[in-house]
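Schema walk-through. Below, the input block comes first and the output block second. Nothing else is stored per chain. Lengths vary across the set, and this one has 394 residues.
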Amino acid sequence: MPISSSRTSYLDHLACSHCGKLHAPDELQALCTNCGEPLLARYDLTAARAELDRDRLAARSDRLWNWRELLPLRDPARALYLGEGGTPLFRAPRLGATFNLPHLWIKDEGLNPTGTFKARGMAVALSRALELGAREFVVPTAGNAGGAAAAYGARGAARVHVYMPKDAPAANRVEAEVAGAEVTLVDGLIDDAGKLAAHRARERDWFDLSTLREPYRVEGKKTMGYEIAQQLGWRLPDAILYPTGGGTGLIGMWKAFAEMETLGWIAGRRPRLIAVQAEGCAPVYRAFHAGADRCKLWPNAQTAAAGLRVPKPFADRLILQTLRESGGTAVTVSDDAMRQAQHLISRYEGIAACLEGAATIAALNPLIQSGQLRPNEQIVCLNTGTRLKELQLH
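--- output ---
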């Protein structure tokens, strides 16, 4: 039987997700130096399979960092820990009954620090970047990523600069500011904030934490996949519904399932991954159903769900590839349907879901009607944040 290893991380190298070029793992890296596409962390899974025991790792009390050997940090003492990860996977029997889905589950990421799943990615990305010598950071955000970056920056005594649209939720601006970040409000959407943030990063030598423009936010997000597998007894569900803006969690969970399969921790089919987008901003939906490899910029993006207002995700190629490899699909829902789903989740299950998380519940009926979901299937919906952050500030 495998035993727990004394190795702190099995990180082996970074590889370009498109051209495959290898990059040194123990230097600060951004995008592939050959083609400019995202880099992904690769681990020595052959050694890890022989030396790691999944149940011993899961039994630890470090939540996200339970899986530290399969994360990039070399020195565990440098982890910026605020209690991230280890979120509950709730059976949702009353809500499921309304859809004739008796095996419906909700993964509640709203219980993370700063109230959303963004804590996972920022915990790992900032921990690793600080370990490699970065000291000042910039991040463009539709809202929640900025607050998470600010919190973990404060934890690591690092300076963080946040660029967000002027009409981003006030709660997100305030939470970043109170954690000590410099917040710059930008005319336009997150892609406009991203352009300005990238310019400032080059100009002032700040490390850019933009979605998948560095290799380690996705590593934090992949831990959702490890947790779902462990929480379901190392059996994967039939389908996972994921509210998709930047799509890091989709890519991360698919990566986690591949790693676990190589490790021998799971067997059989992997889940169908389903991207849920807002009707007013659906570049992934449009590209997926057009058979395209890349997304086109969505004009005049509009939705009340700030995290879904991403007119063109940078990692669009990876998102679309993940959906197709998993046998999944993409679907859109209206803002009104999200709001109605919020009330349903609270009324039937007591979960305070954000609009983005509620989008996955709103998507159930159209997916059932199209035959994409069936009553006998085990289905997990990702609630990516708490509704409490949407309350008006006074």
